[in-house]
Amino acid sequence: MNASNPDWSHRFAGRMDGMHASEIRELLKLLARDDIIAFAGGVPDPALFPTAAFADAFSAVLAGPGGAQALQYSASEGHGPLRAWIAARMGAQGMPCTADNILITNGSQQALDLIGRLFLSAGDTALVQAPSYLGALQAFDAYEPRYDLLPGPGDNRTPAAYTAAAGEAGGSAKFAYVVPDFANPTGETMDLPGREALLDLAEGLDAAVVEDAAYAALRYDGAALPSLLSLDIARHGTIDAARTIHCGTFSKTLAPALRVGWVCAARPLVDKLVLLKQAGDLHSATVNQIALLRVLEGGYDAQVEKVRAAYRARRDAMLAALERHMPASVAWTRPRGGMFVWVTLPPGLDGAALLRRAVAEAGVTFVPGAPFHALGGGANTLRLSYSLATPAQTETGIARLGALVAEMARAA
Ligand code: PMP
User: Fold this and answer.
1) How far is the CA of 252 from the centre of ligand 1 (A)?
2) What is the overall mean pLDDT for the chain?
């Protein structure tokens, strides 16, 4: 470094103190190599993107009478007909609402950032699961919250206990964030009593519920459970009386690069989020929203079915390989959808240490579990994604990983 380069560190806002690049993410970035068997990234398989449908949609939109308008600035709320399409679909899934309840965001990731900005003053409490989606923790971190954990099984901490703890930390409990269906990172689904208990707790706290439904469409077996928003609407009669903020996305079913997601919530909440969206980036890309709507109208259900069939087969291959190759001391989840299996190693084995050896000796990547824990712990856990590996790669990769785990367990 040149001695005259400014030292910025004391000039940054205090909120930057809590924001760090994850070492593991940096390591994994270096490993986007063809010879690596990747169970790390939770990214969709590009072979499943409806690329031809998007090519047709973009050229029809741009060559059509509205072509120039599709390149113009547009409303912060999002493209009206797309909001109406989403509202109709939400209605069909037990969440009756209108286009006014929908805000289009740049992926659901932006929704998480806007929700953090709307609710969290420094020192306020966000209730999260352990483990939680890392990207949500990163989005909230910028607002300097305190985290507390949602009750686990058999734990009956009262709303009063949560409120007291939040008050001692200098704020109040503002929202509970959950991924109820096929969670990132665990693959697990909240059962119906769990959903009702979460709504009870949120009502007791007078807090919001943030329902991240990123994987909800990717169900491989069983029947869909009612969303938190639908249960909340059933309790209170209308969406405008509900406290649940439902975040959806087309990233996992269509294509993430379009960056089209949405928030579906009570009108007063959507109105505030629109203000923040406007201040942040004015609006999501006009042409992307219009082209995406054409693709939706051309047959979204068939696309979702195609994606589900592909990932279902990969989920099955991953579970079968784990069954064959993992030592008996290892446990893992059996997801009914989504992209992830969560693995628990015997106590004392370390997921990060396993990753270092897996990369060097087995050509396999995954994400160690500790960073998903807002309050620490989880060193002996890891997340495997099955969205990219072929069944043959999965078989090879899990066999190598199983052998390494067995060796480390013997040495421990
Ligand atoms: N929520 C969860 C649980 C996710 O796994 C992801 C993507 N990794 C997102 C939200 C954000 O996705 P997007 O912004 O592409 O909608």
Assistant:
1) 8
2) 95
